[in-house]
Structures are given as C-alpha cells and as structure tokens.
Design goal:
The protein is α+β, with helices and mostly antiparallel strands. About 15% of the residues lie in helices and about 30% in strands. The strands form 2 sheets. The protein has a 6-stranded antiparallel beta barrel with strand order 7-8-9-12-11-10. A 4-stranded antiparallel β-sheet has the order 2-1-3-4. The two termini are about 35 Å apart.
C-alpha cells in the first residue's frame, strides 16, 4: 500500500504517548511543525512498515526534509583601537508561527444546541455544558509539545492546568488523551487572558467522539 494512502501512527519515545489513525497529510503537517530536537523524540509506523521506525528515518516517506543549518557567520575583522559592540537591547520577539489550513473536517457551529433545548442556557450560564475531565493535553507550540492536563471540557472549549505560553495566539494543534489511551485531535485558539489556560475549540477531528467522551462517567 502506498504510504500516502496508509494509516499512520506517532509514538513519543519518552512519554509513550501514541497518536493513531492519522492520515498521510495529517502526519506530514504535524511533523513539518517539529524542529530537529522534537523530531528526534518520536517514532512512527504506517501500514507496510515491519516495525516502528525513528521518525527521522521515515522523513523521506513523508516527503519531509530537515531545514539545512545556517552556516556560521564569521566575526567581523578587529578594528584599531578595539571598540565594544553596540548594545542591541532585548532580543526581538519571534513572530507567531501561523498554521496552514486545518486537515480536520468538522467545524463546530457558532451555537451548540444542548440537551436542555435550543437556546436554553445550562446552569453555569453556557450553551455548552462543561464537564470535569482530567485528560492529558498536548499543544503544538512553535515546533514543541506543551504538555498539561484538562480541568474541564465542553463541546466548545476546555480549561487546562498550565496555560499556553505567550506568543501562541493563532490556531493550535491540540491532542487529548483519555485514561483508556484513546486520542482526539482538535484545533483550538487561546482565550486571551492573564492565565491563558482557557481554549476555544475551532474544529474537532471527530465531533461524535468528543460527545462520547463528555458523556462517559467512568473516564
């Protein structure tokens, strides 16, 4: 089977986080967001592979190439008399990386109709009921994984323990992992407040799976 038509999996070597049922394009997009250090932390497998491979060895199958390292810039020739270099001030802020078009198909509607009926608010004043859930959360930020846990979860958003670092305000790839080891892919944006620990769900990979997780009382 062609690797472009195969189902892919990723495995974080240290934490043993496993993300399954990824398409070729989803895997490629995620790997392209990794820097060299992050690539070395993962292994991958797809249909046709005899066993797990280090992600760096599977890059050709994904059509991903590492960016060449820039050649070091030689120091300027010394001047006579020597002068101290000018003070450049604080390092410039790195522009927020923009993600490409999401590969996740299901966009959540602006208004979610809950079991309480159309347009009727839940007791906490929201159209979408929040449920206390403690899932692992992995947020892709600037080529690295920000790892934390959920505090609560709803069809339209989630609250996490450790806020997303400043400077990451666009659409972010988020993976939730429940106690059964199942994973769910989301596209989220950070709600801009001081704690940066609340996120709005823009798209869900499988909306019916998210609904099932919210209704599961044993998870």
């Amino acid at each position: 089977m062609s690797s472009e038509n195969a189902t892919w999996s990723l495995l974080h070597i240290q934490s043993k986080l496993q993300i399954d049922s990824l398409s070729f394009l989803q895997t490629k997009a995620l790997v392209q967001s990794f820097d060299d250090a992050e690539i070395e932390k993962w292994a991958t497998w797809c249909e046709g592979f005899p066993d797990w491979q280090l992600l760096e060895e599977a890059l050709p199958a994904l059509g991903v190439t590492r960016k060449p390292k820039a050649a070091p810039v030689p120091p300027p020739a010394p001047v006579t008399p020597p002068k101290p270099p000018p003070f450049m001030g604080a390092a410039p802020a790195i522009a927020n990386a923009q993600t490409g078009p999401s590969l996740l198909p299901q966009q959540l509607p602006e208004t979610v109709v809950t079991q309480t009926g159309a347009g009727i608010l839940n007791p906490d004043g929201r159209l979408s009921r929040r449920v206390t859930k403690h899932y692992k959360v992995y947020v892709g930020v600037r080529g690295k994984m920000h790892e934390t846990m959920t505090v609560d979860l709803s069809l339209t958003g989630l609250q996490i323990v450790d806020g997303v670092p400043p400077g990451n305000d666009g659409n972010l790839e988020v993976a939730l992992v429940n106690s059964r080891g199942e994973n769910l892919s989301l596209i989220c944006t950070v709600i801009p407040d001081a704690k940066r620990n609340r996120m709005k769900i823009v798209r869900a990979g499988k909306l019916d799976q998210l609904q099932e997780w919210l209704q599961n009382k044993t998870d």
